[in-house]
Amino acid sequence: MKLRNIVATLTLAVGSLGFAAVGQAAKFVDVEIGVAPPAERVEVVPAPREGYVYEKGHYVWNGSAYVWTDGQFIQYRQGHEWRPYVLERRGERWHYRAGHWDDED
């Protein structure tokens, strides 16, 4: 019984690390997805903050399912332009690219 618990805990830990790695990789990689995203959520966009851009909440692809990520303020980078995330239909598939600064293309 203890061995089963240890194996389950290790599996969850390794899975969590893989989940984080996919999230980081998605910032620089375009992803083609064969599953439509869930319906958009309604979000109350907060007032602008000086020195920040706001990226509204949206679904991201974690490699096996869509996961909601809340909207967030991102500190402005002088001389750069924020490019918001893209999640659009292209034929039978969906294209996702995370928001990023123009120098991260």
What labels would you give this structure?
9 strands, alpha+beta, 23% helix, 105 residues, disordered N terminus
Summed up:
This protein has 105 residues and is of the alpha+beta class.
Report on the structure:
With 105 residues, this protein is α+β, with helices and mostly antiparallel strands. The chain has one domain (2-104). The chain has one helix and nine strands. It has one helix at residues 2-25, and strands at residues 31-33, 52-55, 58-61, 66-69, 72-75, 82-83, 86-90, 93-97, 100-101. The protein has a three-stranded antiparallel beta sheet, with no helix packed on it. The chain has a two-stranded antiparallel sheet with strand order 2-5. Strand 7 (86-90) and strand 8 form a beta hairpin.
Element layout with pairings:
Blueprint: H1 2-25, E1 31-33, E2 52-55, E3 58-61, E4 66-69, E5 72-75, E6 82-83, E7 86-90, E8 93-97, E9 100-101
Antiparallel strand pairs: 1-8, 2-5, 3-4, 6-9, 7-8
Distance, first to last CA: 49 Å
How would you describe the shape? globular
Biggest sheet strand line-up: 1-8-7
* Helix/sheet category: alpha+beta
Rounded mean pLDDT score = 79
The domain count comes to: 1
How many strands?
Answer: 9
- Biggest β-sheet strands, sense, barrel: 3 strands, antiparallel
Number of helices, counting only DSSP H or I runs of 4 residues or more: 1
Radius of gyration: 17 Å
The share of residues in extended strands comes to 25-35%
Order of helices and strands: HEEEEEEEEE
Q: What is the share of helical residues?
A: 10-25%
Runs with pLDDT <50, length 5+? 3-27
